[in-house]
Design a protein that fits this description.
The chain has helices at about 5-30, 35-50, 55-75. The longest helix has 28 residues, at about 5-30. It is mainly alpha-helical. It has a domain at about 30-75. It contains three helices and no strands. The chain is about 80% helix and about 0% strand. Helix 1 runs parallel beside helix 3 (about 55-75) and helix 2 (about 35-50) runs antiparallel to helix 3.
Length: about 80
């Protein structure tokens, strides 16, 4: 395998892992307070960034945050 192909495989693996984490987080948010979980995830991601945690960990946590934010919007739709 050449380097370009390996890079593509790793990129796809990261994307799939992030999507899986997002699905699990979304399922969890359905059974809890999604708005509070959203706030907690934001705080954890900010703390991880401030502590210079690995970028990949923060990126994967961001997938979870996006999924939980979406679930929060579903649970609490904007009032017109």
């Amino acid at each position: 395998m050449d380097e370009k192909m390996m890079q593509q495989l790793f990129a796809e693996m990261i994307e799939c892992t992030g999507e899986a984490i997002g699905l699990v987080a979304s399922g969890f948010a359905r059974h809890s307070d999604a708005a509070r979980l959203t706030e907690d995830l934001r705080a954890v991601i900010q703390a991880a960034a401030a502590l210079h945690r690995p970028t990949l960990a923060i990126r994967l946590a961001t997938y979870a945050l996006a999924a939980v934010e979406a679930e929060s919007r579903l649970q609490n739709p904007p009032k017109h």
